[in-house]
Amino acid sequence: MPVTMAGGQRRVLLLLLRHAQSENNHAGADDSASPADVGATRLADPPLSERGFAQSEACASWINSEFGARIVHIHCSPMIRTLQTVVPLAQVLSDVPISLHTDAFEVGGCFNGPRADDGRGHPLHYGLGPAEIRKLIPAMRVSAEDFASSPGWWRGGFESDVESRARAARVCEWAWSQVPLEPRDPAAELPVGVLVTHGFFISYLLQAMLGVGAGGSGPSVALLSANGAIWLLELRITCVAGQAEARSFAVLAAGRTDHVPPPLRSGQKLNGFEIPRCME
To answer: Looking at residue 33, what is its pLDDT?
Structure first.
């Protein structure tokens, strides 16, 4: 049933934050590269590196200074590197609700071994349990349903590309659900929602929002994000005769990293593409 709303536009800003540098990133054990020794060096659910912790502090400081009073909710992937990335932000914005978003994890899931193995022949990994997550972030809102069939948030094993893209489509619909339905003062600043997630998944999510990527007739697309990169989207729903009639969105910032001091920056490799050092 369509949602009845007063006429006009409903708008919200969605800030996508890629996690800070992980130990896998630091070690060069990015699973897409699949070197011969990646199975021995790559962690299924790595923590942040020393540089990553410094990046997370820089991200929190900038986000708070630019958007702090406007942030209405923080959502975070359940992987260790995203949880550790969001800790400084959760501390400085202690009055803002923070929730686990169990559909915002990295493409492929929480798996051991190189991505090329699809998890075959490697031990299963289930991710953190609710008590471990709350130990990192006591205020984190966690749903018991997310842990009903596994000791952790993940089922174990490898997620197929079809499943990853279907999940990106779900998060795309979730993003649109964040647009407030109630009328607001047009002179007021837009509310901001934050989603802390992953580079590969940001690429799939943006493709879902743009309607490009797998299944289309055009070329494949890779949208890269350095560690701590920010994408800022403005989502709009136009209401006509009391019904939500049209969606539109704009990319206001694409992979921005200038809030991270140059000595701390680190890039991304994805599908054979790499962010040039001069652009980090």
So the answer is: 47
